[in-house]
Design a protein that fits this description.
Elements: H1 21-36, H2 40-62
Length: 71
Amino acid sequence: MPAESQSPYPIAEAPHGGEGEALAVAKEMADAARRRGPSTRQIGMGAAIGIGSAAIVAGLLYWKGGRKDRK
């Protein structure tokens, strides 16, 4: 068979190697989202700071200050 009579297009699709670009990008985005989320330690520290600051504000609001003549 002469080379001029063969089709320039392959008869069978070439095998795909590895993972596709879209799949790699999706995995990378999922890893980045997992890294951005707060850890349990950060959540605990935030709760402790919030409770502590609320206790300080409540103490300042209800502190009488030792005044003798309060009207």
